[in-house]
């Protein structure tokens, strides 16, 4: 996982709980003095152990925690890659452009990124179906990113998650419905 994802998580923890909490989390998972650099890759396990530690400190279930991290992450990525996100004028075009535009740009900017496959189809003028497929199983992060994208465009969405790899499905299905 790229350092930029860890940096976003650090930013969120520091903003809400202070630098000492971030340092003590790193100590607890034996990553003391780890300083994440945006373009560098780090083992996925480091992210998972940091997130698990945060979940147990805050007593929050992992799907809930990862979803809210995803929501924060969207704003973080939109700021650090404003040139990419500002190409999109609507929520729908951004979601439809995740694989073919956004992550395609990410592949040019970062060395060997590990990206999911995200297939989007339109169901009706208020509803999109998003198929998320990745060995990293970060579907809850995807949900959060989509909520973050919705608030970026000043709209509200509901997401149903009828098929999930955490419950035995081959891929995750997210039904994204505009509510306001
Ligand atoms: C709603 C929009 C988006 C969704 C649903 C999404 C989904 C994801 C997910 C779930 C991952 C984790 C890797 C995995 O699951 O296999 C990821 C990785 C990543 N995404 Fe996106 N993404 C979105 C928008 C963006 C934007 C706007 C940017 C920045 C331009 C971006 C850049 C990245 C980067 C740098 C990584 C890390 C790759 C790595 O660690 O090697 N994404 N994306």
Task: Provide an overview of this structure.
With 180 residues, this protein is an alpha+beta fold. It folds into two domains: 58 residues; 92 residues, H-NOX domain (Alpha-Beta Complex). The protein has eight helices and four strands, in the order H-H-H-H-H-H-H-E-E-H-E-E. It has a four-stranded antiparallel β-sheet with strand order 1-2-4-3. Strand 3 and strand 4 form a beta hairpin. It is globular and about 50 Å long. The mean pLDDT is 97.
Which keywords apply here?
2 domains; H-NOX domain; 16% strand; 4 strands; 8 helices; alpha+beta; 4-stranded antiparallel β-sheet; binds protoporphyrin IX containing FE
**CATH level-four homologous superfamily name of the largest domain:** H-NOX domain
| CATH architecture classification of the largest domain | Alpha-Beta Complex
Distance between the termini: 34 Å
Report the oligomer. Answer: single chain
Tell me the strand order in the biggest sheet: 1-2-4-3
Question: Which whole number gives the mean pLDDT?
Answer: 97
Q: For the CA atoms, what is the radius of gyration? A: 16 Å
Q: Quick one: CATH class of the largest domain? A: Alpha Beta
Largest sheet: 4 strands, antiparallel
Number of strands: 4
Unreliable residue stretches: none
- Which ligands does the model contain, each kind named once? protoporphyrin IX containing FE
Q: Based on Cα principal axes, name the global outline.
A: globular
Strand portion: 15-25%
Estimate the helix proportion, in percent.
40-55%
As for the CATH topology of the largest domain, it is H-NOX domain
């Amino acid at each position: 996982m790229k350092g930029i994802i860890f940096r976003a998580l650090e930013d969120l923890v520091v903003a809400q709980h202070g630098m000492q909490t971030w340092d003590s989390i790193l100590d607890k998972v034996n990553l003391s003095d780890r300083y994440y650099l945006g373009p560098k890759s780090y083992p996925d396990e480091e992210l998972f152990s940091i997130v698990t530690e945060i979940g147990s400190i805050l007593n929050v279930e992992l799907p809930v925690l990862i979803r809210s991290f995803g929501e924060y992450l969207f704003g973080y990525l939109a700021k650090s890659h404003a040139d990419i996100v500002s190409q999109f004028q609507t929520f729908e075009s951004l979601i439809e452009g995740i694989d073919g535009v956004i992550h395609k740009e990410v592949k040019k900017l970062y060395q060997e990124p590990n990206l999911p496959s995200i297939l989007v189809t339109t169901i009706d003028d208020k509803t999109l179906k998003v198929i998320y497929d990745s060995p990293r199983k970060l579907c809850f992060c995807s949900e959060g990113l989509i909520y973050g994208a919705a608030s970026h465009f000043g709209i509200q969405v509901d997401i149903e998650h009828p098929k999930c790899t955490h419950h035995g499905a081959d891929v995750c299905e997210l039904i994204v419905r505009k509510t306001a």
